[in-house]
Amino acid sequence: MTQNLTLFTGIKELVTMAGAAAKDGRRVSDDDMGVIKNGAFLVEKGRLVWTGRESAVPRDLKKRIKKTLDLKAEAVVPGFVECHTHLVFAGDRAAEFEERNRGVTYQEIAARGGGILTTMKAVRAASKAQLLKLAQKRADVFVQQGVTTLEAKTGYALNEKDEIKTLQVHKLIEGPRIVSTFLGAHAIPPEFKTPDEYLKFLTSLLPKIAKQKLAERVDIFIEKGFFSVESAKPFLKLARELGFEVVIHADQLSLSGGTDLAVEIGAHSADHVIQLDETAIRRLAQSSTTAVALPAADLYMRCAYPPSRKLLDEGGRVALATDFNPGSSPTQSLSLVGLLARLEMKMTLPEVWTGLTYSAACALNLQKDVGSLEPGKCADFAVLSEDWRSLFYSIGHHPVVQTWREGRRLF
Ligand SMILES: [Zn+2]
User: What angle do CA 266, 271, 277 make, to 5 degrees?
Assistant: First the structure.
C-alpha cells in the first residue's frame, strides 16, 4: 500500500459549499454552505479524495496517510475565484480620478486622449519584465485574500505586439491559477477609424493567439460607441471555432443587446449586466450563462448596480468580481465587493460566498475543478482565523492566514 495522502485537520468549520454546487449556484440558501464542524480532508496529488468530520476518516484511507497537518483554523473555505480583472497594466489614473471629482466628464477626458488611452500608452511603453513585476504584485495581493484562481484580461495595448506581450505576461504569473482572456476588443485605438475596421484587424489576430495557446477566452465590450452586437457575432463565432471560450462585457451603460447575445451563443458569462429589462433578466436567469456583477466598478462609476436580486429570485446564477482596473475599479478588495453585494444588491451572505466561489468558477467554466471543496476537485482553499460569517462585513478586513492551491501553500 502506498502512503501518499495528506490529512488536514484542526478545522472548526470546514465550509465546503457542496450544497451550492449541487444546486449549480442557483436558489442558494443557508444550508447550502455545506459546513462540516470539526472537519478534515484528505489530499492526493493536489486533489481532494475525502472530506468529512475529523473523527470519521474512513479506515481504508487512514492506512494511506503519509502526513497530517493541523491547520488550527476557525474555518477553511474554498479558494476564492476572481473571475473578472484587468490585471496587467502600467501607470495609474489617479490624476484623472481627481479631475472627474472636480467635474470634468469621462467623455472630455477621453476626447483629449485620456482614459483607456492613458493606460494604453503606458502599457505599450512598458517592457514585459516591468508589466510582469506589476502584475505579480497584484496577483500576490489577491492570493493574500484567499484567491486561488484569477482571471486576467488584455485590452490596454490594442495592437498586436503589446497585446501579445500582455498575454505572455499572463502565462508568467506565479501562484494562483491564471485564466487568460484576450480582450483586444476593449476600445478602439487611435490607429483605426471605425470599430469594424479594428475588429477586422483583431479577427486576423485570433488564429495567431490560438496557435500560441496564449488565451483560453475571448471577450468583447459591447456598448454604444464601442462594438455592436452585429459586428461581435461573427468575431465571437470565429473565436469559438478556434477553440476559445467566449464572454461579453454586456449592457453596462445602456441596454445594447450584449446580454441577449451572450445567452444566444451560450457564453459562459455576461459581465456587468446592469441595464437589463424584465425580459432580459428572465432570459439570462433561465440560461446557462453566469451573470457577473462588478459592484466596485459601479461604486466608482457612481452608476446603478446590476439587478442581482431579481436575477437570483428568477433562479439565475450570479458571480461577483472586482473588475480590478486602473480606470473604473482601482480596487482589489474582495471584502468591498462582498459588502456592496449585500448592501446595494441585497444578496444574502450565502449568495455572496457562492458568487465568489462556485458561481465564479462557472463563469470560467472551471466548476468541475474548483469553487467548492468536494472529492475529486482541486485542493484549493483558504484558512481563516475568524468565523467565515464575519467576512464581507467590515471593509478591508481579510482574516485569511493561509492560501493553498492544489495542496501546495501559496501564502
Ligand atoms: Zn471589465
Answer: 85
Structural domains of the chain, ranges and CATH numbers in brackets: 5-79+372-409 (2.30.40.10), 81-363 (3.20.20.140)
Note if the pTM is more than 0.85. yes
**Using an 8 Å Cβ cutoff, are 85 and 24 in contact?**
no
Query: How far does residue 331's CA lie from ligand 1's centre (Å)?
Result: 12
Alpha carbon distance 41, 55 (integer Å): 11
pLDDT tens digits along 164-197: 999 999 999 999 999 999 999 999 999 999 999 9
Ligand 1 is an ion; its neighbours by CB within 5 Å are 323
Q: Judge contact between 6 and 65, C-beta under 8 A.
A: yes
Written as one string, the DSSP assignment of 207-254 is: HHHHHTT--SEEEEEESTTSB-HHHHHHHHHHHHHTT-EEEEEESSSS
Distance 74 CA to ligand 1 centre (A): 34
Question: If 0-12 CB within 10 Å is exposed, 13-18 middle and 19+ buried, where does residue 79 land?
Answer: buried
How buried is residue 408: exposed, middle or buried, by Cβ count under 10 Å (0-12/13-18/19+)? exposed
Alpha-carbon gap, residue 359 to 373, rounded angstroms = 14
The per-residue pLDDT for range 287-325, each reduced to its tens digit, is: 999 999 999 999 999 999 999 999 999 999 999 999 999
What's the gap in Å between 202 CA and the centre of ligand 1? 18
CA of 231 to the centre of ligand 1 (A): 20
What type of residue sits at position 273?
A: V
